[in-house]
Design goal:
Length: 609
Amino acid sequence: MNCYKLTIVPAGEIYPLAGKANLLDVIHREGIPLESPCSGKGTCGKCKIQIIAGQVNSPTVEEAEHLSDQELEQGIRLSCRVEALGDLEVRLPEKERKSHRILATGYVPEAVLEPVIKKQVISVTDPGLGENTAYLDIIASQLNDNLVSLSSKSLRAIAEIISRERTMTVVYNLNTVIGFEAGDTSGESFAVAIDIGTTTVVASLVDLNSGRELGSETALNPQTQYGLDVLSRIEFAGKTPEGLTLLQTVILECLNGLIAGLCRRFKIAAKRIYEVSVAANTTMQHLFLGVDPRGIGQAPYIPVFRNEQYFPASELGLNVSPFAHVYCLPGVSSYIGSDIVAGVLVAEIFNSPKNILFIDIGTNGEMVLVKEGKLSACSCAAGPALEGMNISCGMRASEGAVEGVRINENEVDLKIIDNVLPQGLCGSGIMEAVSEIVRVQLVESSGRLKTREKLIQESKEQFAGLLAQDSGKKRVILYSENQVEVAVSQSDIRQVQLAKGAILSGFYALLKHLDLELGDLDEVIIAGAFGAHLKVESLIGVGLIPAELEEKVRYIGNSAKTGALLSLVSREARSKLEQIAKDIDYFELSVEQGYEKLFAKCLSFSKLN
């Protein structure tokens, strides 16, 4: 096999390149950041690179679909479809430097302040001459002999402290001594609550003495460059050499960066962080711990673990106290993770006598229905469309993203993040756009865009100018100026339609499972970013929530992070989380009789026109 070299310009890094090797595979192997949401299937069109010099294969069918003639002339290619036929010089896209808007806040229920971590300050006095004792005996007498099987590291710490001073702080985890610190550090006791989402990551610093959340740091989940959804990442972890290690490494680097940012911002030492709690879906928990998730992605869809996990943070290389621990919140199944268990705790529905539906809408659509205290849950693959991904003009919620749309008779009003020129559609933007397209009846009940001729025939000629069609592909133009077009394509509508069909059908299947009617619901609680950025009217307009429930909807924000926070400050909350995970009955939609017909029915926009 021929051996070539790959040069990344302008930096000049050189990497080995086997003849006809897939370029994206090489980029991933070398740990070079490049977004590839579809994990190399050629369906997203996002892994663009520019061939500066060298020979490669001819453009493929997938590239013809995603790249313009002008891009191809400039040497722009999809790296997942490029094979090297010689030495290559390649330019990667510039890293996006825009700040992304990530939801870190939400409703916080009251909790009894009783953290697992506590401290005790003691003074160690020298014994009298000739007294047969040891410093460890003197320390134990002040701790009611609460010293069991200390590590050699703790013994060395005691010796070092006593060589310098006589006051020390003993750190406990529950009733177990886990560390010793010089002087009185009782006023400095911190922990970090983390929500690892499929798309975003949130880390919050908590003062364990007061139970107060000091602040949060957020980031995009760096694993998105290897796949937008959990199945893509499971596939990447399984098929790519060192793929699992790479996915774990990038998330740990991300978390250490967020923790470092919190320490700088609040002027604390990382060694004063004694516990880290993590809420995430089951796949994200596996990847965080470096556990092979392949069992989640193939029948019979069994994870390696689903209950709570607790172990030293040093095993993962988290930059916190050397005797800190990580608490992974408990989950329920492969597709109902600890983020949902946290949401049930925060929503306070686990012991409610009412009929309440809890929904966390994102890349995955998970929901829990409580009927008179009985909890049932299901999960559906909503896909990344609701977060602005796999959309022709999709982008994350950052500067220039359209987040609100209103189609009027004479114009289209857009709400744009930071009030700059529009660049694309984020999740709330695509939802509102499709909701408006449905409202003004630019689509059939099947979701197919109408023709200009049909709109004129229906006396809707005022909207006909929004429609465009090139090479047989229809789209609705929302903005077209300054060589920038923001539009919703027929494919985009289908993506949203599939997401709403999945969530709505899961909703109705759960009602049937618990023998409830729509009118029996007392409340619908929605968690996640949608609570902050999407109007109820849009959820109803696109058909994600039935119109009859409009007055019963309540938003609670980022409940996954809040649940992780509560587990740090309250032993009672941690106990409740573990009981909730055991009490939730998981309901598998795919085995429900008649589910496929229900899903097809829920795709229709017929009730909305």
